[in-house]
């Protein structure tokens, strides 16, 4: 059975109306709850730390595709850019790792900061086997640039944490883990009661349950383990020939 955002809002208000949990929503109650929920989703996704589930995404890239753009489903790029490959799995919040595959061989990509990249690599037209990936976060999307640009077809892979798109009242929340929903019930109720002028409704017991739910989210989050090799090493001859370098 669908569990909609509207159902979520009813639960939120029941937390702060425990004496009368069947009270219907009035006025802008639902609108306020959805507004707070979406603000919290973006707030906790800003660093990726509170997104507990990472996933792997993939896309084909070819000669001329030097960048990947991570967007929400249905996001329209204006104007279209033929050098961009779009992955519609949500805005990238945190990149764990990225790599390319070609004829069964994996080529790890080395992450470089924007400042480090712009200070050292000036020759963007260079093409070959991409060795580096650089991210450029924007409000609604993130662009990841490959350097050098690919000289032939590769399959691109990235593992990371992706923001959830903004929710509306009829959206189904069953795709969100239950422990995640539990945390957001308390987090949303805590903010809503302040906006409604009912700060006294947030009791020490509710605060305790909120902290417990947050601790569960943090414990469920994947741990990042970085394995750093010799970043200046060159691929051996066979790999370079196979990659078209």
A few lines on this structure:
This protein is of the alpha/beta class and 245 residues long.
Topology readout:
Layout: H1 5-15, H2 29-45, E1 55-61, E2 67-70, E3 84-87, E4 92-102, E5 105-108, E6 110-111, H3 114-120, E7 127-128, E8 132-137, E9 142-147, E10 149-150, E11 154-162, H4 178-195, H5 204-220, H6 237-243
Parallel strand pairs: 2-3, 6-8, 7-10
Antiparallel strand pairs: 1-11, 2-9, 4-5, 4-11, 8-9
Write a structural description.
With 245 residues, the protein is of the alpha/beta class. It has two domains: 5-50 and 174-220, no CATH class; 55-162, no CATH class. Helices cover 31% and strands 23% of the residues. It has six helices and eleven strands. It has helices at 5-15, 29-45, 114-120, 178-195, 204-220, 237-243; strands spanning 55-61, 67-70, 84-87, 92-102, 105-108, 110-111, 127-128, 132-137, 142-147, 149-150, 154-162. The strands form three sheets. It has a five-stranded mixed sheet, with no helix packed on it. Strand 4 (92-102) and strand 5 (105-108) form a beta hairpin. Helix 1 packs across helix 4, helix 2 (29-45) crosses helix 4 and helix 4 packs antiparallel against helix 5 (204-220). The longest helix has 18 residues, at 178-195. The radius of gyration is 22 Å and the shape is elongated. Mean pLDDT is 83; it is low at 225-230 and 232-236.
């Amino acid at each position: 059975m669908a569990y909609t955002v509207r159902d979520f809002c009813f639960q939120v208000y029941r937390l702060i109306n425990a004496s009368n949990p069947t009270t219907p929503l009035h006025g802008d109650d639902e609108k306020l709850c959805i507004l707070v929920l979406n603000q919290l989703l973006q707030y906790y996704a800003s660093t990726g730390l509170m997104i507990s589930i990472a996933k792997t995404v993939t896309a084909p890239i070819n000669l001329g595709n030097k960048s990947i753009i991570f967007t929400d489903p249905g996001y329209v790029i204006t104007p279209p850019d033929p050098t961009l490959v779009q992955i519609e799995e949500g805005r990238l919040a945190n990149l764990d790792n990225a790599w390319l595959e070609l004829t069964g061989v994996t080529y790890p990509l080395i992450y470089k900061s924007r400042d480090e990249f712009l200070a050292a690599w000036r020759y963007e037209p260079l093409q070959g086997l991409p060795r580096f990936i650089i991210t450029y976060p924007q409000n609604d999307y993130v662009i990841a640039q490959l350097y050098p640009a690919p000289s032939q077809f590769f399959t691109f892979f990235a593992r990371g944490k992706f923001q959830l798109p903004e929710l509306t009242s009829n959206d189904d929340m069953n795709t969100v883990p239950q422990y995640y929903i539990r945390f957001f019930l308390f987090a949303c109720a805590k903010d809503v009661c302040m906006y409604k002028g009912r700060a006294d409704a947030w009791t020490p017991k509710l605060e305790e349950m909120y902290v417990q739910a947050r601790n569960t989210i943090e414990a469920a989050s994947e741990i990042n383990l970085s394995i750093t090799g010799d970043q200046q090493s060159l691929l051996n001859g066979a790999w370079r020939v196979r990659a078209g370098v």
